[in-house]
């Protein structure tokens, strides 16, 4: 673990493995440090991933790891606790005190979904407690969908999920009712608004059956939609002096991310990010694309550095080069450019 790699990738999800594959195919030495806690682990399948629609998340990740190692990349289990500048590169410290060095870093640690504090909600997350209709809408089409309203974004969620089911209702959970204009929009689409708050999730066996209101009333549902707070997992990046910024939609904060340019380059030279740590709304296929983009940008940056080093070495060699002299066994230093022969 004390070897120096061209690139250490922190995080082994779609973005990290895609970046690692790009770099390994570019003949770079690559190490992926993966904690093994993907955000989509509770979900049964990955959706909208062209060519792999409906693939279980673990199966997609296993295929990605196989592809990376097939091209010479290495993968190690562990959590990167911190990183620091180390000369021209970086020293990455793992949580078990192992260390690894890298010329460049690609951080793809994703985000954490912070759910409303409702008993039973977290246990159903990713199965029938949902957030994204593009990820799960088809699976609950025409079913009874309840939107847990914890803020103004609930009205947008309700209108969005109405595309997949005509049976959508909003459950007010410590949030004011919609204003007159929004109430009219909801009513026009047949979306019912119910007073709350919600006291818990009801299940039968391993299936969600509804929610229980504080009043004791039980509302029968097949799925509950929530708006989680999307917080970037940025410990490693913060150890390098990078800070998260808030992400807003319609003037409302929905989470945090680490700023980067379109290639994933951060304000810290030599450090790139990709996936949900940089874009909280990106889906799996977009995270994989971002990993590819970052991997190509890192390789280009390394090529520029390799070329600068080669030019400097070439110049050093030229300055010390000798040429044969006029007589056998004698050499004469090469004249400096512009000098006159003695």
Q: What's this model, at a glance?
A:
26% of the residues lie in helices and 30% in strands. The longest helix is centred in the C-terminal third of the chain and has 36 residues, at 284-319.
Distance between the termini: 56 Å
Oligomer: single chain
Strand content: 25-35%
What are the low-pLDDT stretches, counting only 5+ consecutive residues below 50? 328-342
> Helix amount, in percent?
25-40%
Shape: elongated
Which structural category do the helix and sheet elements fall into?
alpha/beta
Number of helices: 7
How would you spell out the order of helices and strands? EHEHEEEEEEHEHEHEEEEEEHEEEHEE
- The count of β-strands is 21
Give the averaged pLDDT, no decimals: 93
User: How much is the radius of gyration in Å?
Assistant: 27 Å
Biggest sheet, in brief?
A: 7 strands, mixed
Describe the structure.
Helix 1 runs parallel beside helix 2 and helix 1 packs parallel to helix 7 (284-319). The strands form 6 sheets. Strands 1, 2, 3, 4, 5, 6 and 19 form a 7-stranded mixed sheet that branches. The protein has a 5-stranded parallel sheet with strand order 8-15-9-10-11, covered by helices on one side. A 3-stranded antiparallel sheet has the order 12-13-14, with no helix packed on it. It is α/β, with parallel strands linked by helices and 342 residues long. It is elongated and about 90 Å long. The protein has 7 helices and 21 strands. Residues 328-342 have low confidence and may be disordered. It has helices at residues 14-25, 57-70, 133-136, 153-161, 180-188, 235-239, 284-319, and strands at 4-10, 30-34, 74-77, 80-86, 89-94, 99-107, 111-114, 129-130, 145-149, 168-172, 192-194, 198-204, 207-213, 218-220, 223-225, 229-232, 245-249, 252-257, 271-273, 322-324, 331-333. Helices cover 26% and strands 30% of the residues.
